[in-house]
Structure formats: structure tokens, C-alpha cells
Design brief:
6-stranded mixed β-sheet; 48% helix; single chain; alpha/beta; 16% strand; Rossmann fold
Length: 366
């Protein structure tokens, strides 16, 4: 009996110690996020994202923050970050008779490391306004897949009634459009439940789970614990950097369309673009561009754009890469753009839009 009591006491003390360190870790992560990002200590609502029952998460509306970040060269700069109605970082006059351009994308468009007036769509407005008055509406959210972006369009297009819709895509959208692929990714997993389009056309909220962390208990706890989510994120990054396991992106690059799950993700994305096409009025012209140019993802997107009558704006990723090769600081984390990168992106977009808007204007006068 004494031995059993001793074992139970040791187990109790061990559990208490684990609980203490977990509470310490949770408090520390929340304190750092509060001091660094202004994220409320107790709330699940953050500066850059909040939970949403339909979208999984969304960019919070009506935010105003000033914080310090640094670019890829380590130079610190002050960011003036704000959002307006519905979480848009730029929301002009929806009742204006000027040409209205709606821009929707993921973290590249959310652009949390540049100030409001440095985003590519704010720069696009400056470039086009020298030639004709425009109203810009720019929305991005961290880690969004195509379905979430289509849902944002569906929620806002009737109020904005844009003449032009610009969609920003990224190679990882195929991953984020498939729960099977995202569950096998070490680099592009959201660690949050998000809506997925199923093969039968229904939308279901699901949380991707890595095979080596498949326990439902762990993932349910991670949806509430910032510390546990931080640990899982660091663990997956360590595996990826250490090359201890293949990420599904490696398999797709090697196999291309011989990878069945990638083919299924292409089919899902095809259906999502069809859904978008049926949502957007025929009078609204849809454009798309890609933030990167990784194959085979980029090539498959181009095929889908052509199939759905979406005008593809080429050369964005290539223009940023050329600037990088010249020594310009265009990335702040090796992937997302600095203010200089956003300026380059805006120039590529405005060059094509100027030509096509001019052609449309001439056609109307003939």
C-alpha cells in the first residue's frame, strides 16, 4: 500500500510539474504577443486574425496599430497598420462612380510588415490615379486558401460592385485547398480549422493534422493554446529544416501531375474558380497574378485561369526576383515583400491595367 501511495504521489507531482511549466509557457507566449503585437492577453481576437465560424479566421476590422518590424537586411522600420470595414486594409468609396478595383489575396496581400500606404494596392492606386480616378478595396488574410478568398468575394461584391477584381495567388494555394495535402505539409499547414470544399461539393470545416501529431486531443487543445500551437509550429519547422521527413511539396515537385492528391487539388481549385466565376457579375473583369513562380504549381494555375476566362497578369514574381538579383531588399522574411517589393508588384500590375483600361475606354468611344 505504501508503495502504491508513493507511486501515486510521484505521478501527481510529475503531473503538477508538467502543468506548471505548460502554464508558464502559455503565459509567456501570450505576454510576448501582447507586448510585441498588441494582441489581447486573454482574448482569442488578435491584431491580424480572429476566429470566424464560416471562414475559419478573418482579418479583424477597424484596427489601428503602430509597431516595429525589420526587413531581410535586419533594418528596423515602423509599421502603421490599420483595417477598415470588413477587415479591408484599404476601403475606398463603394458608392463612387469612379472605376472600382477589388483586390483579394492571402498573406502577401495582407502585408502586415508594411504600412498602409506601402501595400501594392495602395501603390497601384497612386500609379493609376495619375491617369484616371480609381477606388481601391484591398483585403488579405494570413494563410488563406482559394475557398476562403472566394467566400470573401461573395460576402463583399454586392456592396462594392467592382469593375475589376484582382486575385493574388500563391503556389501553396493548392496545398491549402486540399485537407489531404495540407495535412502532409510541413511548411504550409495552418494549425487552424478552415473550410474545405469536398469532392461532393459540400463545404466542411476541418483542421488538417500532421501524421506524426494525429491525436485529436492535441489538435483540439492547440486550437485554444497558443503555447501548444507555437510548439507544434517550431517542431514542424525543425523537421523541415533538418530534412528528417519529406514535405508533400517535395513530392509534388518531383512527381507533378503523377501525384494523385495534387491532381485532386487541381480539380478542387478548378471548381472553386468556377464558383467564383458564377458569383462575379459578367461586367466585372477578373484578373489574377501569382506571388511566386514555383513549378508545377504556377503552370497549373495558368491553365485554370485560361479555362475560366481570368486575365493573367504575368511577370510579377520575375520582376521581384530581378530586383533581388540586383541587390535590392525586396523580401523581409525570404518570401513576403518589403515596401520595395510592393512597389515593384504595383508597377507590373499598373502597367497592364493602364493598357487594358485605355483599350476599354477607346472601345467605348468608337
Amino acid at each position: 500500500m505504501k508503495l502504491l501511495k508513493g507511486i501515486l504521489l510521484q505521478a501527481f507531482l510529475a503531473g503538477l510539474t508538467i502543468l506548471f511549466f505548460f502554464a508558464l509557457g502559455e503565459s509567456s507566449v501570450r505576454l510576448v504577443q501582447y507586448v510585441r503585437d498588441g494582441r489581447p492577453f486573454l482574448s482569442y481576437v488578435g491584431m491580424h486574425a480572429e476566429f470566424d465560424s464560416n471562414l475559419g479566421w478573418k482579418t479583424p476590422p477597424n484596427q489601428r496599430h503602430i509597431y516595429i518590424t525589420e526587413n531581410g537586411a535586419g533594418a528596423k522600420h515602423e509599421v502603421h497598420y490599420s483595417t477598415g470595414p470588413h477587415g479591408f486594409r484599404l476601403y475606398d468609396d463603394a458608392n463612387s462612380r469612379n472605376t472600382k478595383i477589388m483586390v483579394v489575396g492571402d498573406s502577401f496581400t495582407h502585408a502586415v510588415d508594411v504600412s498602409d500606404d506601402q501595400t501594392y494596392y495602395a501603390e497601384l492606386k497612386k500609379n493609376l490615379s495619375d491617369w484616371m480616378p480609381v477606388e481601391i478595396f484591398g483585403y488579405g488574410s494570413l494563410g488563406y486558401g482559394t475557398l476562403q478568398e472566394v467566400m470573401i468575394v461573395e460576402q463583399n461584391i454586392k456592396e462594392i460592385r467592382p469593375d475589376i477584381l484582382i486575385l493574388q495567388f500563391c503556389s501553396n494555394d493548392f496545398i491549402n485547398n486540399s485537407v489531404a495535402l495540407e495535412s502532409k505539409s510541413l511548411m504550409n499547414i495552418s494549425f487552424l480549422p478552415r473550410p474545405f470544399l469536398g469532392p461532393d461539393g459540400t463545404i466542411k470545416m476541418q483542421m488538417p493534422r500532421m501524421p506524426y501529431l494525429s491525436s485529436m486531443v492535441i489538435w483540439e487543445a492547440a486550437s485554444y493554446s497558443r503555447f501548444l500551437k507555437w510548439m507544434i509550429y517550431r517542431f514542424s519547422n525543425w523537421i523541415a529544416v533538418s530534412k528528417l521527413a519529406h514535405s508533400v511539396e517535395d513530392d509534388i515537385r518531383a512527381q507533378s501531375t503523377a501525384n494523385l492528391e495534387f491532381v485532386q487539388a487541381i480539380a478542387l481549385t478548378d471548381r472553386l474558380l468556377q464558383r467564383l466565376r458564377s458569383t462575379v457579375p459578367t461586367a466585372t473583369k477578373i484578373y489574377a497574378f501569382q506571388a511566386d513562380n514555383l513549378q508545377p504549381f504556377s503552370g497549373e494555375f495558368e491553365k485554370l485561369f485560361q479555362r475560366h476566362g481570368i486575365a493573367y497578369i504575368e511577370g510579377v514574381a520575375e520582376a521581384v526576383t530581378r530586383a533581388l538579383e540586383k541587390g535590392e531588399i525586396v523580401f523581409w522574411d525570404g518570401e513576403h515583400w518589403t515596401a520595395a517589393g510592393h512597389t515593384i508588384v504595383a508597377e507590373v500590375l499598373s502597367n497592364q491595367l493602364r493598357r487594358e483600361l485605355m483599350a476599354d475606354r477607346l472601345e467605348r468611344h468608337e
